[in-house]
Every structure is written in structure tokens, then in C-alpha cells.
Design goal:
The chain has one domain. The protein is about 85% helix and about 0% strand. The chain has one helix and no strands.
Length: about 60
């Protein structure tokens, strides 16, 4: 009877471990997605700042005369 309880406990622990691994993998995936979004936002900000600075520094289109 004791061995059956030990087997049941071991099985429950395995199931819980699998569930925890799945949750950790899902969280890691979310963190990776957030990092990618953050990087792309920073790149977009840098590009808009560079474009704005280019206009402010006098890079105007040439007029046709």
C-alpha cells in the first residue's frame, strides 16, 4: 500500500513538473516577444529622430529653376 502511494506521489510530481516546464516556456516566449517589440520601437524612434534631425540641419529638397 505504501508503494502505491509513493507511485501516485511520483506521478503527481511528474505531472506538476511538466506543467511548470510548459509555463516557464510560455513565459520565456512572452519575454522574448516583448524584447523584440522593444527593440523595434527603439529602432523606429532612432529613425524618426534621425529623419527629424536631417530636416532641421538643412537637408531641403532642391528647387528647380
Amino acid at each position: 500500500m505504501l508503494s502505491k502511494k509513493v507511485e501516485t506521489l511520483n506521478k503527481a510530481m511528474e505531472v506538476e513538473a511538466k506543467r511548470m516546464r510548459r509555463e516557464v516556456a510560455a513565459m520565456e516566449k512572452e519575454v522574448a516577444a516583448m524584447r523584440i517589440n522593444k527593440d523595434s520601437e527603439q529602432r523606429a524612434r532612432r529613425m524618426s529622430v534621425a529623419t527629424t534631425r536631417g530636416i532641421a540641419n538643412g537637408s531641403k529638397p532642391h528647387s528647380t529653376r
